[in-house]
Amino acid sequence: MEQKEQQGQLKRAMRPIDVWGLALGAIIGWGCFVLPGNAFLPKAGPLGTAVGMAIGATLILVIALSYGYLIRKFPLSGGEFIYTKKTMGKTNAFICGWGMILAYWSLIPLNATALGMISRYLFPGIIQFGHLYQVAGWDVYAGEVIVASLFIILMAIVNIRGIKQAAWTQTTIALTLVAGIFMVTLLILIQGPDLSNLAPALPTSQNWWKGVFAIVAMAPWAFIGFDCIPQSAEEYNFNHKKSTRIMVLAISIAALLYVAVNTITALGFQDGMSWEEMLVNLKSNNQIWATGYVVKMKLGIIGLTLLGIAMFCAVVSGMNAFYISTSRLMYAMAQDGALPSTFGKLGVKHGTPRNAILFVMVLSLFAPWFGREVLNWIVDMTSVGAAIVFAYTTASAAIWAIRHNHKLQAWIGFIGCIISVFFLSLLIVPGMPGYLSFQSRIILLVWIAIGIVFYALIHKKYKKVSDEHKIEEVKD
To answer: In the chain, pLDDT over 70 holds for what percent of residues?
Structure first.
């Protein structure tokens, strides 16, 4: 007999450690392992990256305080969409939700295709079979498409089967990820590396402040994922007051992991050779993964295996986290009339938004066929989407706090909104360190245009739909 679906309550099965694993697993992805040699060191050096990451994390923590405040007030799936609707109305809520869907969804296939990238680094040629074509300089192989597709389907099944299973999987993977990076870092430090390898502390080819703020500009992208926490707020089995501490812990640990991997990459090069010299040397020899090269040189195959396990965990945990977040966001938007009602239904057996999960899966299955470079253009936009969503959330917190005479939170929300606009300016103002590429700007305009057309089609019905959720403030 075919399983019927109903609208009901999401199951409260997430423990504090599960929510921490959700956030950390979403924050730390493939970039933590690849960007030290490709972006962090070239842009800012060891010291500049550490300083930029610390500044970025601190600014994100200020924003996170507004999230914690609103989670306590409105512990509902949909997070930022719900907060914006309550304070600024449905039109602004749709804009916020539309940006979030792209930001969250795009990170699922990006992480899936990173599995092929890991294979290219660790096991060259294993799944690079069946060359199909080339897109923007990236070779697309049938083997990589198959592997990415299998993981996309597998993580969809895990999420359909229930939040408890998805949360347990996420927690286990996140803990393994942290342990892997910790072990690799400890083993390299135990060897007593040459600290002179960290010189120069900042790149010699550009002004130090440009390098530092280039890293700060990446903060919305680097830390996107902590905002997955409110998407599953209806599924907590604990007091929502703990959510702020969980976010602070996840963001702080993530910043330390970024800095640790970047530092051991610079520190682990050959004695007497600076990281700048080594990057030039690696590039001339077509060695495109500096961190992997360093770990293999210092720790051999055992170290490289540990690093590969940590990187694999980062990729899978990112996929799982954004499956959870995207499906819960779509569930909330559908209940409000902003998306087709089918996405607002829960499966009776598992109590999960099955239709939303399946839709995300099908959409994600198309992405590997376009090649990783095209996906990178899309994901470059996620910082813009994240900055806009951060601005909406912090502004919502400020508005709600002013209405209820919570003066300290009003100031925190106001400062968070300024920080969010600052992040946005780094990305969209020409000449700024994080200014988007031409391709990313075109895709961003296309997504905005699609959103305008879609909203024009649904806005009359959307405005008339009453809330399925009783959005009432929860008293502390």
So the answer is: 91
